[in-house]
Amino acid sequence: MNHIANLTWHFTNVRCGKLLNVLQIPMSEITDQTLQKHAEFLPALKVLDVSNCLNIMFRGIEELGRHCRLLIQLKRNMPPPEPPQGNNTAARVVEEEALAVANTMPMLQQLELAYGLFSDLALNTILNKCPLLRALDILGCWNVRLGGDLEERCCTLQSFREPWEPEYCTDSSSGGDYDDDNTDSDD
């Protein structure tokens, strides 16, 4: 059974129970049209991972938000975008998807939007319209500048991963490759 048929079968079975709380379908080929057709059958959904689903756009996210009113965790991480070419080329800004999250998912507590193309405008709207938000990951959202009071507001969250945090940074207990105390080498 192909991936889309498998998802359609899954959504069809959800119609009977409407009890699904967690749906994790990262890297799937699911589309906005599939979400528009089946989102109404997911009213109990609380946790959703649609990371790297390249065929989902803001209309699908909006549809999920309208029908999945209990959603408290959304993972919508995307692959890093291609860097702009040339000195005068600005990064592309796309606010619609982040605004769809803000406008339809007021119960969110945890939100991952790594490598989103939105700016401070959409981030401000998310912070205003998702008052229960306590964890936010916007790694790689290079259009976000954290202007005005946005940085302060984000830092009041229990967990905040800013756009520019290097991925190689780890806490000291992780046993990473770099050890400042051990500068001697046996080589």
TrEMBL record:
Biased composition (Acidic residues): 177-187
Gene3D superfamilies: Ribonuclease Inhibitor
Stretches for region Disordered: 166-187
Entry superkingdom: Eukaryota
InterPro entries noted in UniProt: LRR_dom_sf (IPR032675)
Protein's UniProt name: F-box protein FBW2-like
